[in-house]
Specification:
The chain has 346 residues and is an alpha/beta fold. It folds into 2 domains: 3-137, NAD(P)-binding Rossmann-like Domain (Rossmann fold, 3-Layer(aba) Sandwich), CATH 3.40.50; 163-326, 2-Layer Sandwich (Dihydrodipicolinate Reductase, domain 2). Helices cover 24% and strands 25% of the residues. The protein is built from 7 helices and 17 strands. It has a 9-stranded mixed β-sheet, with helices on both faces. α1 (12-23) links the parallel β1 (3-8) and β2 (36-42). The longest helix is centred in the middle third of the chain and has 17 residues, at 162-178. It is globular, with a radius of gyration of 20 Å. The structure holds NADP nicotinamide-adenine-dinucleotide phosphate (NAP). The active site is at 162 (nucleophile). The record marks 189 as: Activates thiol group during catalysis. It comes from Halioxenophilus aromaticivorans. Keywords: NAD, Nucleotide-binding, Oxidoreductase.
């Protein structure tokens, strides 16, 4: 069964989704029994720029294939053209005409169920938010942790945030092994498109008026709420902070966890290494080398535990350092969720 996709919002995540689909060979029935075929892209930018930024990417390098805009379509390799739309008004999107099974919303333009319903009203059958949404969505999925709860009856889901996808496999593993009493997390996130290159006005956030490449900038995060959503028994036990740093891609989470059991660092590393090899294989990674953030650029995993940084104070206070490619890892998880969900639709 071919799944007909529309990407709504073709920025960092939208373009990574397209590239990852082609890189993984998921657009062809010769390589998968559930091909994901991109039928349309809705992006406010013009066709020429869309093709240019498909071809060239300062973070992930050149596209492995051909990409050009012609006659209102984006032509990738020798495949049928992808219809290019430029509609801010959802009620003008021709999802019924284009027979869209699934909208991957990578626009960041809202998190309310109503927004997703507006796409369904246009004829799309299902919808995924590329960020945490309000409680009215049918499910919030961290692939590897709870994707198997999808039944196929859902219409609107979210794939959470890149930082939740990074942290949940680790917190879940350690909570099962040792019990977590409380925790604090610090997300160290690469710069994003909502920050200016030089100081500039921002509608709602004074910190985002400051040059992305001049400072370490504290920003708000809802990661503690994200942890509660997936592991309700930890409600009220986490606090989270975040900062943006002047790098283009790859982020990290530092966390301090107060455990219920006394541990030593090697024991914690062994538990995490085994989770990376078994329960969370493909999603969780483990490294014990003197690495730096750029070593994880274009890494498709949600989280890589840096075992060289694991520390324990007084037996129960554990400090961890986790890496993740906030763009490529997350785009791959959106695809994983879409593939799994589509198999439940029949
Ligand atoms: N980047 C990450 O590391 C990351 C990781 C995980 C999740 N996310 C989430 O993914 C979403 C997108 O993030 P991003 O980093 O890809 O942002 P981005 O690079 O700014 O991409 C968003 C794109 O959507 C376009 N757009 C905005 N409103 C639209 C609308 N109504 N219809 C169609 N297109 C619209 C934007 O155009 P304009 O530029 O013209 O506004 C932009 O090209 C956000 O919700 C973000 O939280 C991002």
């Amino acid at each position: 069964m071919t799944i007909r996709l529309a990407i709504n919002g073709y920025g960092r995540i939208g373009r990574c989704v397209l590239r990852a689909l082609y890189q993984r060979g998921l657009t062809h029935s010769s390589t998968t029994d559930t091909p994901l075929k991109i039928v349309a892209i809705n992006e406010l930018a013009d066709d020429k720029t869309i093709a240019h930024l498909t071809k060239f990417d300062s973070t992930h390098g050149p596209f492995q294939g051909s990409a050009q805009a012609r006659d209102g379509k984006l032509w990738i390799n020798d495949e049928p053209g992808i219809t290019l739309l430029h509609q801010a008004d959802i009620s003008q999107l021709p999802w019924a005409e284009l027979d869209i099974d699934l909208v991957l919303d990578c626009s960041g333009s809202g998190n309310e169920r109503d927004l997703a319903e507006a796409h369904l009203n246009q004829g799309a059958r299902r919808f995924i938010f590329s960020h945490p949404a309000t409680a009215e969505v049918d499910a919030t999925i961290v692939y590897g942790f709870n994707h198997q709860t999808l039944t196929g009856l859902e219409r609107v889901i979210s794939t959470g945030s890149c930082s939740t996808n990074c942290l949940i496999p680790v917190v879940d593993t350690l909570h099962r092994a040792f019990g977590i009493n409380a925790g604090t997390t610090w997300t160290i996130h690469s710069a994003m498109h909502d920050q200016p290159v030089l100081d500039a006005y921002h509608d709602t956030d004074l910190r985002k008026t400051r040059s992305a490449f001049a400072s370490i900038i504290p920003v708000d995060t809802g990661l503690d709420k994200g942890i509660e959503r997936f592991l309700p028994e930890l409600t009220g036990k986490f606090q989270s902070l975040a900062m943006r740093v002047p790098t283009m891609n790859v982020s990290a989470i530092d966390c301090a966890l107060q455990l219920n059991t006394e541990v030593v660092a090697d024991e914690v590393n062994q538990v995490l290494e085994s989770a990376a090899q078994q329960r969370f294989a493909g999603v969780l990674g483990y490294v014990n080398e003197p690495v730096a953030s750029c070593d994880f650029n274009h890494d498709p995993r949600s989280c890589i535990v840096d075992a060289s940084q694991t520390r324990v104070a007084e037996g129960k206070l554990l400090a961890l350092h986790l890496w993740f490619d906030n763009e490529w890892g997350y785009a791959n998880r959106m695809i994983d969720v879409a593939c799994f969900w589509a198999r439940q639709w029949h």
